[in-house]
Amino acid sequence: MLVSSTMHLLSMCVLSLVLSCCQGRVDPNFRIRAVNLGGWLVTEGWIKPSLFDGIVNKDFLDGTALQFKSVTTGKYLSAEQGGGSILVANRTTASGWETFRLWRTNETAFNFRVFGKQFIGVGTDGNGIDIVAVSKAPGHSETFEILRNSDDKNRVRIKAPNGYYLQAKTEEVVTADSQGNKGWGDDDPSVFVMKMTGRLEGEFQVTNGYGPENAPQVMREHWRTFIVEKDFEFISQNGLNAVRIPVGWWIASDPTPPPPFVGGSLQALDNAFQWAKKYGLKVIIDLHAAPGSQNGWEHSGCRDSSQEWGKTDETITQTVAVIDFLTSRYAKSPSLYAVELINEPLSPGVTLSSVIEYYKAGYAAVRRHTSTAFVVMSNRLGPMKPRELFPMASGLKRSVIDVHYYNLFEDMFNNMTLQQNIDFVYNNRSSQLNYLTTSNGPLTFVGEWVAEWQVVGAGKEDYQRLAEAQMEVYGRASFGWAYWTLKNVNKHWSLEWMINNGYIKL
Ligand SMILES: *[C@@H]1O[C@H](CO)[C@@H](O)[C@H](O)[C@H]1NC(C)=O
Ligand SMILES: *[C@@H]1O[C@H](CO)[C@@H](O)[C@H](O)[C@H]1NC(C)=O
Ligand SMILES: *[C@@H]1O[C@H](CO)[C@@H](O)[C@H](O)[C@H]1NC(C)=O
Ligand SMILES: *[C@@H]1O[C@H](CO)[C@@H](O)[C@H](O)[C@H]1NC(C)=O
Q1: Residue 12, Cβ neighbours under 10 Å: how many?
Q2: Cα of 431 to ligand 4 centre, how many Å?
Q3: For ligand 1, what atom is nearest to the CA of residue 108?
Q4: CB of 305 within 8 A of CB of 198?
Q5: Does domain 31-52+201-314+321-326+342-364+377-500 have CATH number 3.20.20.80?
Q6: Which tens digits make up the pLDDT trace of 276-326?
Q7: pLDDT in tens, 81-121
Q8: Pocket test for ligand 1, best of 60, 103, 104, 106 (most atoms within 8 A of CB)
Q9: Does the domain spanning 65-198 belong to CATH 2.80.10.50?
């Protein structure tokens, strides 16, 4: 038994040597064991909350979702028909039409985007006091201030650009003609009770929150201190062999990216490549934020949750140019291992045909500069067929399908026991991965996973089992896996913490 498995191993090694010698053929035994450098591109608020501390009015970042209940009508402000019409104050419950997303123009001035994506403003017809939601692009007439009651921050007035305050005159008439000087009682139709129902904390929010004066300094400091050379040393000393580095599309126009983004991200990536070389680590460049946003989440550089990527040819062409830029810059680096064309495109907003059109063009862009780098293509999230990329990817050499196996977000995990969670990994995740792993199709990559779950009272050993189960199953992915993430304020999401505290050992 022992002898035969040793023999088997030996012959595998010989085989892999033979294979790896021949014009860049892939060593079939090699697997990426990577960690994501999430948070370097500001990808989630809770990665480093202190990054937001210096922002004036930090409740009101881009994309913050607000609802307003009139104290006099007792009903919610609403964009009639979701947009394209007037504002009313006659809705008893609040959801899409009653939700306003902020665009921040400076620390005190905001645009309010409605469900149909229009901005509210003072109507140009009539007497200059009607509030409508018709503008497609915000200007002076769409710029408002929010004034908060100092005793109760959720009682607010909204000051219109004509200098007057919004008021719900009746349930069906909302105008900008109140002096707003009657105190904060329930009898003043210019007073609203504000409720925050959503918030984004990504790189757009940080940079626009600080504004052009302060953002460059804040981001430079973040890049200088958040991930440093020592981290690459740590990664290489703890059994990992690669890093997956999330970047934003604006990196391609560094050092002068379109505002609010600031220059310096390219230098940070250059540094990463230098450190990777020094410590023998491979790099997977991951385009995490694509122009227009491919998923509406803050980690895609999104301003207000709307998802525009792929809806125009322009967003696709622009993204291909970013891939071209990044690959050409790093193709000669011995550390460049793979280029991931886009992270987590979300169905149905991103259609199969647009993502396939993009993957073909993105693949060609990588191949213009390197024949050896792998090209990673993410399966869409949301409704999709697991093998939907196969017809396209199977013909492409060194292509890889990326899937993200988080086991805690779905409701179905809420009431699962420890053992059920572990079984889910061994049974369900395993068969999902098997279904994707074929002998002549693309390689498979579990590009994000974490040893965290929805189990209350789990102890250290339980976490160890969960991590081991995942490493065992995801270790069978033919390309490899990457943990999300290296550093995080939530300890189980921090691979650094998990390693330093003996929860994960490679
Ligand atoms: C913010 O913008 C508003 C409207 O454009 C302007 O009136 C105000 O002076 C600006 N405030 C600051 C602090 O720049
Ligand atoms: C609210 O007012 C608008 C405008 O008059 C009207 O079209 C709509 O039906 C009203 N909605 C409710 C829920 O009363
Ligand atoms: C979990 O169990 C509780 C109590 O039995 C139940 O109220 C809840 O609906 C369950 N949640 C899910 C997602 O099944
Ligand atoms: C896991 O797989 C089993 C067996 O195929 C199936 O019965 C079960 O519903 C799956 N569980 C979940 C949560 O999808």
Answers
A1: 13
A2: 10
A3: 1
A4: yes
A5: yes
A6: 999 999 999 999 999 999 999 999 999 999 999 999 999 999 999 999 999
A7: 999 999 999 999 999 999 999 999 999 999 999 999 999 99
A8: 106
A9: yes
